[in-house]
Amino acid sequence: MEVKNCRVQNCSVQLQGSIYIDSVFLVNLVMDLYLLALTVRILGKTATGLRIFAGSALGAAGYCLVLCLPKIPYIAKVFLGMIPIGALMVKIVCRTKGGRELLRALGILFTCSFFLGGFILFFREKIKAFSGHGNSLALLLGTAFVGFTFLRRLTELYRKRKGNFFCQVSLPGDLGPVEFAALIDTGNGLVEPVSQKPVAILEAEQWKKLKMWMRPEKYKIIPYHSLGNENGIMEGYEIDTMKVKGKESEKQFQKVIIAVFKGRISKKGAYQMILPPELSV
User: Whole-model pTM above 0.85?
Assistant: First the structure.
């Protein structure tokens, strides 16, 4: 759909530009997907792909709506439209609690937007100078993906330098809560095949403290692939609740699937558990 913005002055028509709303929506949808994924990663939150997509679609639709409002200066549109829409996006995706956390998430979203936008503008101008195709929609989206990948990598390095790759995990055991040291492994893509839930891994020796969960209705079979073992199988169990505590925050997860590893996870005994990023702080 094409929307034309025209103005009549002194019996003459001044064409101020053509805006293709479908293209604007698509670009903003993709950008918001990248920005929300980065925001979730930086905050250490967990969010399903469906929630991220819903938040991105809301942001793109809101931007198109605000853009079409007549006789309102752009700066007013930003403050009256973009900020509330951005707040609603992060509220839906990150499920923030309290005004302080919401403002922090909103600040991260806009900061990521600033850097990603700067990255795109820089490369578009460079490419335009050499090839003359800097305004291509495909080029814009491709450049955005490169910028997103770069910023995500920087985020991972930042978290690693802060030591956020280790945390404490508390599970309800036979004699009360049991704590384990855990490594957050960004390369852990292990999932339970039926529910597609991410799977944490715990040493078999530690399961002796969690026998209350070793019941038939909680039992899971988890296939995996590793070097030297093309078709491995691990047994697992669903635990009702798990608390994860990092240096700066603490989270609680429900209905967590944990696989039993028959051996030592850490040769030096520094940690007894491996967590996927989706179950981390």
Answer: no
Strand partners, 121: none
Instruction: Give the span between the Cα atoms of 62 and 181, in whole angstroms.
Output: 44
CB-based contacts of 85, cutoff 8 Å, min separation 6: 58, 59, 62, 63, 66
Query: Where do the domains of the chain lie, and which CATH numbers do they carry?
Result: 2-161 (no CATH), 166-279 (2.40.70)
Q: Is the dihedral of CA 233, 234, 237, 239 positive or negative?
A: negative
**pLDDT, mean of each 10-residue run, the chain (281 residues):** 43 45 81 88 78 89 81 74 85 82 87 84 66 63 83 76 74 92 81 91 91 92 72 90 85 93 85 88 73
Beta-carbon contacts of residue 127 (< 8 Å; ≥ 6 apart): 133, 134, 139, 143
